[in-house]
Amino acid sequence: MSALSPLEQGLLFGVIGVAFVSLLYAYWLWRDTVRRDKGTPAMQQVWSAIKVGANAYLWRQLRTMLPILGVLAVALFFSVYVAKPSHQALEMFGGNEAAARLGIGFGRMVAFIVGATFSILVGQLGMRVAIEGNIRVTAMAVKENYNGALTVAYRAGTFTGMLTDGLGLLGGTIIFMVFGKAAPDALLGFGFGGTLVALFMRIGGGIYTKAADVGADLVGKVEQGLPEDDPRNAAVVADLVGDNVGDCAGMAADIFESYEVTIVSTLILGLFLYGMTGHIQWIVYPLIVRAIGVISSILGTFTVPIWENFPIKFLRAKDAEEAMFRSYEVSSINTVIWAFVFSILYAQEWQLATLNAIGVGLAVVFNPLTSLFTSLHKKPVQEIAESTKTGSATTILSGLAVGMEASVWSLFAIVVALAASHLIFHGEGLIYTLYGVAMVGIGMLSHTGNNVAMDSFGPISDNANGIGEMAHVGPKAWKILAELDAVGNTTKAITKQVAIASAVVAATSLFFSFVADALTLPYGGLAKMGVSEFLKLLDQGIPVSTLTGSIGFLLGGALPYLFSSFSLRAVARGANLVVEEVRKQFRVKGVLEGTVTPDYGKVVSITTAAAQKELVSLVALSVALPLVVGLIFDVKALGAFLAGVILSGQLLAVFMAIAGGALDNAKKYIEDGNFGGKGSAAHKCAVEGDTCGDPLKDTAGPALNPMIKVVNLISLLAAPLMVESQGKAGAYVALVLLLAVLVWAIWQSKRDVSVSLG
Predict the structure, then answer these.
(1) Higher pLDDT residue, 387 or 94?
(2) FRET pair for 501, CA 20 to 30 Å: which of 91, 97, 261, 746?
């Protein structure tokens, strides 16, 4: 803080104030949600089953995570006793190496715990408020109040978004204010804690929701011809629970850690620039822009209910989707304008604000891009729907083809945004262009509040529709709920794309932080090398043309495929158990006739156990493989490994997300009355295509987001240890242990889940 002027110190305290404003707004949104009517006893009975199942799952998941988080927290503390403290850390503690080790180790451990705790809070509290909202949306629909139902659903989702903004901004800013130039040591712990929890919640929630959904569809829809949320289907409640633990808790933690990681990577690169130039603006500026984004999100999300009855007729929104997009535009315009004002007045330049604006624009671009490949009204989805006339195989092939094409155009959009940094900072040095990429990420995630609100709107409206169907609400209420549910499907698809793109931008920023760190570590860091030597070394980059570099790049490209294979296999195994249980319950006299209530809790228990069984092995795979590569070869080979992970991970994640979304909407297109409508042969093919696509878009694809960032963060944390321990006995012991973990993870992911569940 001593390097900051009084104005800059005031600005940082203002950032903390904005974080608290965001948390207070979240509190108001919670109070506004829970004060509303919960509807009829029949609705509350269904809602209670969903609430109990979701809470039980998250508590069990928490018990699975806590021991692992505890072990890693201790490991992070002792990691500073393997590698020497950084020059900045020694300077912070007056050159006392023992004090530096103790202080930084403690700070890294506490930051890790805080990051993990914040991620857990965002996921758990966000899901609980979403569940409080879903029944109240149904109650508003029963009163035939469309705008009221929209308001409740959106505000309940906005709670999670503002919690994400507030906690993410608060954590990163306070860590920088406490540790100053030594902040990267603690920030990495903060980011790693949030990212690891997000990986747990994404994997577990994704496996749970799709095991239940696939099982429910295969038996209920395909075999018995039942509607989507028919109360006779024993897997229906588990399916509705899955929407919450997957798309609320999992997605919230996912975007939260992207929000964290972009702050972490920006501050690390900003500290490199501060060391080179002596200007603190590289660190202060992104924090202020994030604060501007939080205020913009509050303004935007607050305006959603007004657009339906806006006084100026041509500005009125025709539906809920347009109202949400209008709110995003309000937030975007506000952030871009004030970012330019601050950039020019404080930093005396336009480049940083321009890159922020490009990041905001990149998030906006994914709306029409996703709509092009997943909307019911566009040609790709209609072509998939038409292919149902010739069977399930052609349906699935058409969906896969759409996903493959979409992944290329999504990558192209990201490349254009990243290339802007090269054009804007061309001639000023590579480190500036790398920092510019981080600025794109800061802009892209500046409206995390809006993004999370739009995503959570999906499962809230889906659950509300399910509650309405199971409680037999009237046709007018059902029409409102069905419309909100359809809008929710679109907003979920868009925010999944934004989440994937933000993960790639965040991971790319982390990768550049790793490159800058890994290249300087063998020479004692930037402080000992000097600026000119550092820039020369940075220009060399991470070599892929060497043998070890090529090996690292190939292994990195393979990891997302192995990870996705295991997660999809986990869904298939869990779905098999659900199918067997639902079939067994249908054979009970009275269940299919609707006179006997099925045992919903049994299916909830099966899916919960199946998801927990798969969690640890997938996380172990993500953590162990990059460390094994780095220990067998070196940090440069590990850098090439990270490049491979980012490339194949982005392409694969978008491919799966778009293919699944397109297959889902092709089914809905037929259910709207096209190609024979519900119950037709085409509809059965579409249901099977959707059943195949669901695990792609809701499990394997989204889980790659935190996996990519976990790999980058663990590599950044371990790089100094690898350099310091190269060739020592401890490195060989660590390698043997990690190889054992890797073998166990692969073996565990191939075990028969029914055996482990008894």
Answers:
(1) 387
(2) 746
In terms of pLDDT, which residue wins out, 179 or 140?
140
Answer yes or no: are the C-beta atoms of 253 and 123 closer than 8 Å. Answer: yes
DSSP classification of residue 86: P
The rounded mean pLDDT for the chain is 85
pLDDT, average across residues 518-536: 61
- For residue 216, give Cα distances in angstroms to 461, 497, 598: 19, 26, 13
- Does 755 score more than 50 pLDDT? no
pLDDT of 758? 43
User: Residue 181 in contact with residue 5, Cβ under 8 Å?
Assistant: no
Alpha helices in 217-346 (DSSP H): 236-242, 251-277, 281-302, 320-342
Residue 544, φ and ψ in degrees, nearest 5: -105, -15
Q: How many domains does the chain have?
A: 1
Q: Are 249 and 483 in contact (CB under 8 A)?
A: no
What is the pTM assigned to this prediction? 0.86
Residue 1 inside a domain? The answer is no
Residue 175 located in a structural domain: yes
Quote the CA–CA distance of 716 and 472 in Å, as a whole number. Answer: 54
Q: How far apart are CA 327 and CA 306, in angstroms?
A: 10
Is residue 633 helix, strand or coil? coil
d(CA 146, CA 317): 13
Please check whether residue 233 lies inside any domain of the structure. Answer: yes
pLDDT (mean) for 503-509: 81
Which residue range is the domain that position 136 belongs to?
Answer: 6-756
- Is the separation of the CB atoms in 608 and 520 below 8 Å? no
Quick one: CA dihedral 723, 726, 728, 730, positive or negative? positive
Angstrom distances, CA of residue 490 to CA of 344, 368, 372, 458, 557: 37, 11, 11, 8, 30
Residue with tokens 């030594």: 182
Rounded-to-integer distance, Cα 69 and Cα 75, Å? 10
Distance CA 744, CA 253 (A): 27
If one counts every other C-beta atom within 10 angstroms of the C-beta of residue 489, the result is: 18
Q: Cα–chain-centroid distance for residue 415?
A: 20
**What local confidence, expressed as pLDDT, does residue 528 receive?**
61
Is 645 domain-assigned? yes
DSSP assigned state of 674: G
